[in-house]
Amino acid sequence: MLALLxxxxxxxxxxxxxxxAAHPGLELRHHVDAGLLExxxxxxxxxxxxxxxxVLRRAVGEGAGAVLCTCSTIGAVAEGAxxxxxxxxxxxxxxxxxxAVAAGPRVVVLAALESTLAPTAALIEEEARRVGRAVRLxxxxxxxxxxxxxxxxxxxxxxxxxxxxxxxxxxxxxVLAQASMA
Length: 182
Fold this sequence. Notes:
Elements: E1 2-6, H1 11-22, E2 28-32, H2 34-43, H3 49-61, E3 66-69, H4 75-80, H5 82-85, E4 89-91, H6 94-103, E5 106-111, H7 114-131, E6 136-141, H8 145-150, H9 156-167, E7 173-176
Parallel strand pairs: 1-2, 1-3, 3-4, 5-6, 5-7
């Protein structure tokens, strides 16, 4: 069983559909805690370390063979706790960061939520160091997008993201920093 750690319930049907398309027999167990993101936004990602560890332990106790964290803001916290829970803890954004580094060197990160900018930049820089590639990283907050997301504006949110992406110049790759933006 694969457990997923979400900070928004909107991700549950998205990941169920991805599972249905690629691995229909895979059992998923969704752990949704919007409070983790709210607190991480106020106090920083490290503030939710104990709470994230608790979710990971609960997932392992329920039989998870691995946990996938779908939140870019707290991804490093979750991944950092892997050694304490005895199963792989994966970040949904790590493959994206590796792909961005491979496509670079000029990488632009777009985020709807300011708290995601620093963790995503750090992840991309980590991946660049891992493979020995230099990147020129720029980050942009998509103003107003998060308010649209929280309001359930399924037309306005992606429109703001698309407009921000269209406005980017001088980039080899544009990274959408949050699963909600894809």
